[in-house]
Design a protein that fits this description.
The complex is a heterodimer. Chain A is α+β, with helices and mostly antiparallel strands. In chain A, helix 5 packs across helix 7. The C terminus of chain A is likely disordered. In chain A, the strands form four sheets. In chain A, strands 6, 9, 10 and 11 form a four-stranded antiparallel beta sheet that branches. Chain A is about 50% helix and about 20% strand. Among the domains of chain A are: about 80 residues, no CATH class; about 120 residues, Band 7 domain (Tetrahydropterin Synthase, Chain A, 2-Layer Sandwich), CATH 3.30.479. Chain B is of the alpha+beta class. Chain B is built from eight helices and ten strands. In chain B, helix 3 crosses helix 5. The mean pLDDT of chain B is about 90. Classes of the chains: A alpha+beta, B alpha+beta. At the A-B interface, strand 9, helix 5, helix 6, helix 7 and helix 8 of A face strand 6, helix 4, strand 9, helix 6 and helix 7 of B. Strand 12 of chain A pairs parallel with strand 10 of chain B.
Chain lengths: ~325, ~325
């Protein structure tokens, strides 16, 4: 309409153009309509479609159509695992992820049940389970999840001793935190499903860390001392046991030896005796002579004297020089 | 003239359209609306989403959020009943449940937040000040798990509570809801987000923790030394006992053997006088065999039994 007022000044080329203007306009409108009608939902998302603000349907991944201008689409990444960190932030997720911890102490420092302090870092992994609730039931669901997580973790840590939190209670803390966070998320109809609560570092606060380490050291020292003592024990006692067995075995040996010999001797004696008793005189003499016969060749210096030969004794004494003087017979020295 | 008329019609149409459009309004899923006429609310609140119509210009639509809304408390520094200085950080989730009342009393969310600040911060302060710190920190009287090596060293016990965190939270929430009944809003949940010692107190807490740890460390060390000494003593005792028992047993065995041997000998040798005689004779003979060697000199008289035939055939 405005065109017609100024039609006089317009050159023919432009006039031609303005003739096709309505087509251009139509084309542009058609393009806009098409572009605002079709939309793509990414594989990990769903599209929530509202008509005049009212929820109508959920669009699945792929190319979708909606009524232009009247309907609106909001994307919610339902398949993606999301996470929110407490006490630290991953700054560059890579093979070696780097972490920033400064400035997040306030999130991680908390009171334990025995009124000590512990530094607990954790991460909550979650998924949007119900996109409708996530969008329409709660404002700022991410911040809500953070608030809930902090409150829940503190409640659970607040019911435990610092030792439990630092050592044996870890697994339990993460399980209970997960349950509590989930129940609160459900209570707020946030549409969020908690996949996992992972406890990262749990430390005593920095100013007391060294004394906590000292405890560990002392514990190691205790073990070392005990082990050393045990090893000294083990070095000595089994050997002593072996020695004791040796002593006893030797005594047994002695015993056997002694008894066997005694029995042997006795048996030999008994045999001899039974013969001896038949002819004592002869047997005795025979044994005597046999013995002498046996002995005399072994003796180095043998002197046979007559009854009158006693005078030579002093001379012989010198020659013998301390050698033993023995006389098998009583009458030899008189 | 004709042109002017058509322009007037067009302008009139545009104005009519404009007026008509002002009558339409869109309520989102997240919103609820109340309609006011010259500032006064008219009719019920509109809580369903979709396109709605009102009298254009005369009526105005006021949008309120329908969702759970956040409220974040101030970091309050409060002394507990047992005079411990802590700061408390709280949050609440609330909802506009009666938008008409809400609009009348608070006008908008800003007003609501500041009212909630007054109510909840005040209630928090009251609740904290009338409870011991443990009551705010703990929520049950569970027993700590023992079994950790450290726990049997120190008396790792948790103080019992009478009220507990959960109840205090609920209590604050209920009190606040009572105060907020006519505000058109409901506080659904109230929680302590963070509770911690104030900076100045923290150092003394750390000192206490350090001294506690030192106590544990000392205990470990002395335990180690004690245990080592005990093992060492046991080693000595065991050693002596093993050695002496072995000695005793060996002596007993030997003694029994000696006795048995003596018995055997006695039975053989001590039958009668002739056996005794034979024994002493044979034993002497045996002894001679062993006594003499090549160093021995012997002087034998021809009177002796061996040589007696040297002098005479009759001996």
């Amino acid at each position: 309409m405005a065109n017609s007022n100024f039609s006089v000044d317009i050159p023919p080329q432009i006039r031609n153009l303005s003739g096709s203007f309505r087509y251009i306009l139509l084309g542009v409108i058609a393009l806009v309509v098409i572009f605002s009608s079709f939309f793509t939902v990414q594989p990990e998302e769903v599209g929530i479609i509202t008509r005049f603000g009212e929820y109508t349907r959920t669009a699945n991944p792929g190319l979708n159509f909606k009524m232009p201008f009247v309907e609106n689409v909001r994307y919610v990444p339902v398949q993606r695992q999301l996470k929110t960190e407490f006490g630290y932030r991953s700054t560059a997720a890579d093979v070696n992820t780097s972490y920033a911890k400064d400035g997040y102490r306030g999130e991680s420092l908390m009171l334990t049940g025995d009124l000590n302090l512990a530094d607990v870092e954790w991460v909550v992994q979650y998924r949007v389970d119900d996109p409708f609730n996530f969008l329409f039931k709660i404002r700022n669901p991410e911040q809500t999840l953070r608030d809930v997580s902090e409150a829940a973790m503190r409640q659970i840590v607040g019911d435990r001793t610092v030792n439990e939190v630092l050592t044996v209670g870890r697994a339990e803390v993460s399980i209970e935190a997960e349950q509590l966070i989930q129940s609160l998320a459900d209570e707020y109809e946030s549409g969020i499903k908690i996949e996992q609560v992972v406890l990262q570092d749990i430390n005593p606060p920095d100013p007391v860390k060294s004394s906590f380490n000292a405890v560990n050291e002392a514990q190691q020292q205790r073990e070392t001392l005990i082990n050393e003592a045990k090893s000294a024990y083990n070095k000595v006692i089994p050997r002593a046991r072996g020695r004791a067995l040796e002593t006893i075995q030797k005594a047994e040996g002695y015993s056997l030896d002694r008894v066997n010999r005694a029995e042997g001797n006795a048996s030999r004696f008994n045999d001899l005796y039974s013969e001896y008793i038949k002819a004592p005189e002869v047997t005795k003499r025979r044994i005597y002579l046999e013995t002498i016969e046996d002995i005399l060749p072994k003796i180095g210096n043998k002197i046979v004297t007559d009854q009158q030969g006693n005078g030579v004794l002093p001379l012989l004494q010198m020659q013998m020089d301390g050698a033993k003087v023995a006389n098998p017979n009583n009458n030899s020295n008189n | 003239m004709k042109n002017f008329k058509s322009i007037a019609i067009v302008v009139g149409l545009v104005i009519a359209l404009f007026i008509l459009l002002d009558g339409f309004y869109v309520v989102d899923e997240t919103e609820q609306v109340i309609i006011t006429q010259f500032g006064d609310p008219v009719g019920q609140a509109v809580t369903t989403p979709g396109m709605k119509f009102k009298t254009p210009f005369i009526q105005r639509a006021h949008f309120f959020d329908k969702r759970y809304l956040e409220w974040d408390g101030d970091r309050n520094q409060v002394p507990t009943k047992d005079k411990k200085f802590i700061f408390v950080d709280t949050y609440a989730r609330w909802q506009i449940t009666d938008p008409l009342q809400f609009f009348k009393r608070l006008r908008d969310e800003r007003g609501a937040q500041s009212r909630l600040d007054d109510i909840l911060d005040g209630e928090t302060r009251n609740a904290i000040a009338s409870h011991d710190l443990v009551e705010v920190v703990r929520s049950s009287n569970r027993d700590p798990i023992s079994g950790a090596t450290i726990t049997d060293v120190i008396e790792d016990s948790l103080e019992n509570i009478a009220v507990g965190r959960d109840s205090i939270q609920v209590q604050i929430q209920q009190q606040a809801n009572q105060l907020a009944t006519d505000l058109g809003l409901t506080i659904h949940d109230f929680r302590f987000k963070r509770i911690n010692y104030v900076e100045e107190v923290r150092q003394t807490v750390y000192d206490r923790m350090v001294s506690e740890r030192n106590r544990i460390a000392d205990k470990f060390r002395s335990e180690g030394q004690g245990e080592a000494a005990r093992i060492n003593g046991e080693k000595d005792r065991k050693l002596k006992s093993i050695e002496s028992e072995a000695f005793r047993e060996a002596q007993e065995i030997k003694g029994r053997a000696d006795a048995q041997a003596a018995n055997i000998y006695a039975r053989a040798y001590d039958k009668n006088s002739s056996s005794r005689e034979l024994y002493s004779f044979t034993r002497s003979m045996e002894a001679y065999q062993n006594i003499f060697d090549d160093q021995t000199s012997i002087i034998l008289s021809t009177d002796s039994e061996v040589y007696k035939y040297l002098n005479s055939i009759d001996g």
